Each structure stands twice: as structure tokens, then as C-alpha cells.
Amino acid sequence: MWKIFSRDWKNTATNWVALILILGLAVLPSLYAWFNIKASWDPYSQTDQLPVAVVNEDQGAVVRDKDIDVGQELVDNLKDEESFDWQFTDRDEAMDKLEYGDYYAVIVIPETFSEHLGTVVEGNPEKSEVQYYVNEKINAIAPKITEKGATVLVDQITSQFISEVNGTVAELFNDLGLELENDLPDIKRFEEYIFKLEENLPEIYQLISDAYDDSQDASSVINNVQGLIPQAEQAAGEGLSTIDETTAFIDDAEQRLNELSPQVKEDLNAAQQTAEDVNAFLKEARSVDVNVESIGEIRNQINSRTSQSLEEIAAVEELLQQVKEQQQTSQANEENQEDNGEEGNEENTPQPSPQIPEETIDQAIADVQAIEDALTAIQEDSSQIGDRLSEAQENIDQTLSSLEEKSGETADQIDAFLKEYNENIEPQVLAEIDKAQSTLANARSILVDVQSTVPEVERILNSTEGNIAEGQDILEYMMNEYPYVNQKVNEMADRIRDIQGETDINEIIELLKNDPSAEENFFEEPVTLSKNALFPIENYGTGMTPFYTVLSLWVGALLLVSLLSTDPVNLQEYRSYEQYFGKLATFVSIGFLQTLVVTLGNVFLLDIGVAEVVPFVLFGLLISFVFMTLVFTLVSVLGDVGKAGAIVMLVLQIAGSGGTYPVDLLPEFFQTIHPFLPFSYAIDLMREAVGGIVPARVKTDLLFLGIFGGVFLLIGIFLKGPLHNRTRQVKAKSRESGLFH
User: Fold this and answer.
1) Where is this region: Disordered (predicted)?
2) Contacts with 267 (C-beta within 8 Å, 6 or more apart), sequence order
3) Between the CA of residue 84 and those of 45, 81, 98, what are the distances in Å?
4) Which domains does the chain have, with CATH numbers?
């Protein structure tokens, strides 16, 4: 075994062509790994090189008197966004270039995009859609990348929309909280009002009921008053007639007083003059001798003058009696008017006309009668002169003296009455007549106003009757609705008590009050992803390094068995197991060179971030040994059939090992064969070195790789000899065709 191994390396070292080939075989597999790793180094960071067309057909919309154009806003945002090579164009050009492969995808914003978004505030919301067109023929991965980009774009629009809506809602809640805080005293007052209303509702109902009864009484009163309106109109008419008659009577009395007053004054002056003449005559008579003839003459003169005075005084008395009678008649008329006023409208009854005090008139009449009595006494005494002439001369002087005294008193009385008449009686009578005329004029004006007001009063009463009827309907409705209102108020009061027991309004206010900007930012991204990588991988290329490294080691083994002979020279000199192990050692040593080149190149040339460099190299050497054992055993034992088997295993392992996609995403067949593939454990072992070692997983992977290596070593040991001759025969037969070497 050692002889075969040493001779192979000695021959290689002395043959420069062989050495170059071996070195090429050592480096060639690493190129396969390096190129693939570098090509997939970080493709998702290069998506800004993928041309994606954006077609904005949005026409905008008006939402609550505000113009919005979400499509244009989206375009403006994409111009600053570098996740793709955004191309802004029209639909026709975009679809043409998509068809010819110039664009990987086309995103169309329809013309109703903003309009549909705005329907969210109209009670009948319609979903907006973004149209996505992709040419999947161009590349297998690009459509998935662009689709993810379109999805992210839609999510961004959705997130922004939700942010705006919830920001608005948060602002409304904040305003509501502030308003509730400002209105808290009013809310407390409202609660108190509800409780007070609940307490006072029975009293309110009683007031409504009383008001309803009062309205019925008012209707009855109005009906009665309406019945008295004709009487009031009649009384007003009769009052006007009475006033007109009284006014005419007073005017007539004034006229007669004006006519008689000069005559009264003249008669009083004449009576006074007569009294003075009698007095002078008596004085003269006393101074002369009296005889029967002279006494008769004196008596005749006295009788003549006193008779004249009596006539004049009688005229004055008659005038005073007329004034008294007129006043009594006027007073009787006013009493009749008062009676009519009580039956009609008392407020419009004319006030009584001013009256001359009856005592004044009676006193004037008494004074006139006293003057008449005095004049009559003079006349009687003068008639005694002739009768007493025969009695005695001495009595004449006494009688004349008595006549003279009475005549003087009568003159004084007439003088006093004349003065009283001029200063008091006549002015007072005239003044009272003027007052009576003024009062009657005012009374007439009032009655005229009453007559003109009666229709308006009647209209007001009719209107009031209608209003009262309407008020009765309202009161009756309120009485009928009272049970419902009472029930609802009690329910509201009970609900307020329950809320007070369950919730503190101050807590509600604090919940509503917020920072709208913070709320908007929260709802824009309510959940953030906090990435915690247990085993951080720098990029996609680093993540694919285990797969491409393991794949390059299997490819390297295939290259060796394809170019190098698995049988030593002079087979007859060695036993089958010696042949097997001798050549296997050569192949494994070259495989180790391949492993060192690819693993160290990954670390130092590509600068792959390997967490554990030494285990990465050691694990690579172990995997190379196992793979080389498998491939070499297949070819050494089975020949060309083994080569085909190694290639088939390669194909199955690429698909079923989970090197590119998670095993759970693979079809059921590949999930079934996954545990039986060396790649599954080799890739997992290299991942431990790249990302970070979990000892339990490393032990599992080493165990299964050891099992694979041990099984194929046993196959090589025990089947190399029995199958070798048959394999050589098959190989010789295939060469006869001239197609195989």
C-alpha cells in the first residue's frame, strides 16, 4: 500500500506534466466554488440594478373638499427610493419593453387609485389595487425579487395609509380628550341636572297638569269675555250718547250763566241801591215832622223799593236753584254711566265730571233767602207806619229807627252776598263748568278709543283662544309623553350611576389625550422586527459557502476519478486491498490539497466571514476524505458504472441536501432521501464552522459522515477483489466500441 502511494507521488514529482496536471486538479475545484460564491455574494443588495417600470395613471380625487393624489405622492417617493431601478413611463412603452425583456416588471397605478382610497370616509369603502405585470421568462429569480418589491411597495402604501388614518383618529381622540377635559365641569353639571331632573319630574308633571287645568279655565274666561264684548260695545255707544247730552246740557248751563250773570249782578246792585235808598229815606224821614200824609208817602216809597229788591233777589234765587238742579241731573247721569261701566269694560269707564260743592250752592241760596226775609220784614214794618200813626207820635220815631236799622242790615247783607257772588260763586261755577267740559271731552275720547279698540281686543281674544288651544295640545302631549320621558330619564340617571361606579372619566380623558405624531408613527409601524441573529452571516455568499465548498469537493473527487487511474501498475504484484488502499491514499492526498486550496481561498482570497477558521479547514479535510472514499470506492469497484453512480449521487445531493432551499420546501421525494445523503451532513458541518459551532450538531454530522466513510471502506475492502475482474471485462468490452478510453 505504501509502495503504491510513494511511487505515485515520486512519478508525479519527476514528471512535470503530471505535476502540472495534479496542481491543476488541486486548484480546479476551488475555482468552481469561488466563482459561484462570488457570483452570489450579495445579489439582493444589487436589486437597484433591476429596471422596473412605474406607470402612474391616477387622476387624483377630492375627499372632503381636499385634493389628494396618492399616485403622484407614490411616484415622488419612489424617485428617492433605490431598491430598484425605477423607470417612470406610460403604459404602452412599459408593456412593450416588458415583453422584450428591457423591464423585469411593470407596476401600474390605476386612475381610480386615490378615489377608491378616499371612499374610506364615505361609509362604502372600496379597495384600491396596484396592477403588477412581470415577465417570468427572463429569469427565475428576478420575478420573485420584483414581486417582493411590489409587495413591499403595497405594504408601504398600506402602512402609510393606516398611519395617516390612525394619525387622524389619534388627533381626533386627542381633541376629544382636551374637549372633554375643558367640558368636564359642564359634564358634572349635566350629571347633576339629570339627577335633579329625575328628582323633580313628579313635580314637573304636577305643574304641567296644573297648567293644563289653568288653560281650560282661561279658555272659559275668554269665552265669557267674548260674550261681553257686544255689551261693552253697546255700553260705549250709550256712554257716548250720555256724554254728548251732558256736554250739551253743561254748554247750555254755561250759556245761561253767562247770560244771567250780568242780570244777577245788576239785580243785586239794584237791590243794594234800593236798600241804601230806603236807609237814606228813613234817615230823612226821621229828620222831618211826620204827618199822616207824609207817612203814607214814606210807606209807599218803602214798599215800592222793597218790592223791586224782592223781585231782583228772587231772580238770583231762581238762578241758583237752576244751577243746583243741573248739577244733580249731571250727577245722576254719571252714576248711570258708572253702572254701565261695571257691566262693561271698567277700565274704559269715563271719570266723573268735577262738581260744585253742594254746600256752597245751598249757602248762597240761604243767603239770598235771608235777604228776601229782611226785605219782606222791611215791607211789613213799613205797612205798620200807617197803622201806628194813630197810636202815638212817639212810636213813629221808634219805628223809623227800626226800619232804618233793618234797612242797613239788609244793605250790608246784599253787599256781602254781591261780594261773595263776584269773588267765589261765579268764578267757581265757571271753573267747574270748564272742568266738566274737559272731563267730558276726555271721557268721550276714551269711549271713542274703546269703540276702536273693541275689534282689536276681539281679535286678540280670538288669537289668544287659538294659542291657548295650541298650548293645551302641547300640554296634553307632554302629559301623554311623561311616562316615556320619566322612564328614559330614570334609565339615564341609573346609567350615569353605573358609569360612575365602573369608570373614572378622568382616566378616559387621560386615555384619549395623546401625541398625534407619536400615534401616527406608531400605527405606521406598530410592530418592529428586532433581529437577533444567533449565528450572524454577513451576506448571501457567505451563507452559500458551505454548499459550494462541499459541492466543489465532490466535483474534485469526480475529476480525479475521471482523469487518474484507480488501479496501480502491475496489478499482479499487489493484493486487492493493497491496490485499494494504495490508490485511495493517493486520491485522498490530492483531495486534501483540493480542500486546503478551497477552504483557505474562501477565508483569505474571498474574505468570507468564517466564525471558526480552523474547524472550517479540518471539517473540509474530513469531508474530502469521506467524499473521496465514496467516489473512489464506486469507481474502483464498479469502474465506469461507479462513475455514473457518483454523478447520479451528485445530482440527487444537489437537489435533496437542502444546500440552497430548506428541506421543508422540497418535494416529498427529496425530503425522504435527505437523511441518506452525505451532502446533508457535510453541508451542515461546514455551516457550523461558518456560523458558529453547536457541539451536539457537530457530533451528529461527524457520526453520520463517519458511517458513510466506514461503509464504503468496507465495500472497497470486501468487493474490490470479487468484482474487479468482472469490472475489467466490462471496461474492456466498452473500449472495443472506440467510444470509451
Assistant:
1) 323-357
2) 311, 312, 313, 315, 316
3) 10, 8, 15
4) 2-41+547-728 (no CATH), 50-167 (3.40.1710.10), 200-343+358-499 (no CATH)
